[in-house]
Specification:
Elements lengths: L5 E2 L4 E2 L12 H10 L17 H5 L7 E7 L2 E6 L2 E5 L33 E3 L10 H8 L5 E4 L3 H6 L7 E4 L4 E5 L2 E6 L18 E5 L4 E4 L7 H11 L4 E5 L13 H11 L5 E4 L13 H9 L7 E2 L5 E3 L5 E2 L6
Parallel strand pairs: 5-6, 6-7, 7-8, 12-13, 13-14, 15-17
Antiparallel strand pairs: 1-2, 3-4, 3-16, 4-5, 9-10, 10-11, 11-12
Length: about 325
């Protein structure tokens, strides 16, 4: 039986018992924030990084599978003749206010107005580091369709996206981007909310099923063995997996994977080239900003094809593993 989120008429619930509050309490968390000495932000400025806007604007070949990581969970995918953007965040801060909150370590490698024509925008959930109101308002002026979990469409409509361009889906529900291209909202173990609200919208991962290639975009999720196993059995193996590795901590181990659990999810999903997301862009945890990728490299077996491009660097997945080591420079 496929795992399902539960909606009680007011809020959504994870399939598994999932704690968002730290088990040790907020007092110890504050103490760690004040006194732990990890290098949570780069000591020297990063970048500038530059994506090749002209190359990205060229027609996408019908057999292409390429990815350009723009920071955090924002990735421009070129797959089977289409361009798909995930979780667009361009603002300087992942916060309800641009005056305070987590600040970007580097400027976006591709300005919003240099984005090529998109075939779809896919959203995993409505947290500020995944759903940027300013970016949505800009994209609302184009004709791109949006695909999102249940409830997230209300945000989009408020920011100017016409209802006709919004498709909302529950877990395991599909939508046709084209007759030969299917998008499927799939399970994740996380939570949602902006401001004081929590869990009144759904969170999801997504399967992008083109005529030649299949991509898994994990969004945010904690460990979810049954969910990942079912996704892998239904739609895997994938030609590319995008999984989060950063902003993890034992105090919120239910809602973020971290490097080790990302590798476990990778196995459950059926393996394949892995491009890690959700690290190296914002200070959202207590670990050093480089720790997620360094631990991933340490823990990954030799048979895990890792794609570790610099921000804005276009990756041709068929070319094989890539390690730019940009964080060491």
């Amino acid at each position: 039986m496929q795992v399902q989120a539960r909606f009680d008429g007011k809020i959504y619930h994870n399939t598994l018992p999932t704690s968002v509050s730290p088990p040790s309490g907020y007092g110890p968390l504050l103490k760690r924030y004040l006194f732990e000495k990890a290098e949570r932000e780069p000591k020297a400025p990063l970048g500038p990084f530059r994506a090749d806007a002209a190359a990205l604007a060229a027609p996408v070949p019908a057999d292409a599978l390429r990815a350009t990581w723009l920071g955090h969970s924002t990735t421009l995918l070129e797959i089977d003749g289409r361009r798909i953007l995930t979780d667009p965040v361009w603002s300087e801060r992942a916060s309800p206010s641009q005056l305070m909150g987590p600040k970007r370590f580097f400027a976006p490698p591709l300005p919003l107005d240099k984005l090529p024509k998109l075939d779809a925008v896919i959203l995993s959930h409505d947290h500020y580091d995944h759903l940027d109101a300013a970016a949505i308002r800009f994209l609302a002026k184009t004709d791109v369709p949006f695909f999102c979990p249940l409830g997230v469409g209300a945000h989009l409509r408020r920011w100017g996206v016409p209802a006709a361009r919004i498709t909302e889906r529950n877990w395991w529900e599909s939508a046709q981007l084209a007759p030969d291209f299917t998008l499927v909202a799939t399970p994740a173990r996380h939570f949602s909310g902006r401001g004081l609200t929590r869990n009144n919208t759904l969170w999801a991962s997504w399967c992008l099923l083109g005529p030649r290639h299949k991509v898994f975009f994990g969004g945010d999720s904690g460990p979810f063995e049954e969910g990942f196993r079912q996704i892998g059995e239904a739609y895997g193996p994938f030609d590319l997996l995008l999984l989060e590795i950063g902003a993890s901590d034992p105090e919120w181990a239910n809602i973020h994977l971290g490097p080790d659990e990302a590798l476990r999810a990778h196995r459950l999903l059926g393996g394949g080239p892995l491009l890690p997301l959700h690290w190296g862009t914002f200070n959202l945890a207590f670990h050093a900003w480089r720790q997620p990728v360094e631990r991933l490299l340490e823990a990954a077996d030799a048979d895990v094809p890792l794609l570790l491009p610099a921000p804005g660097q276009r990756v041709d997945v068929a070319a094989g593993p890539l390690n730019s080591r940009w964080w060491e420079r």
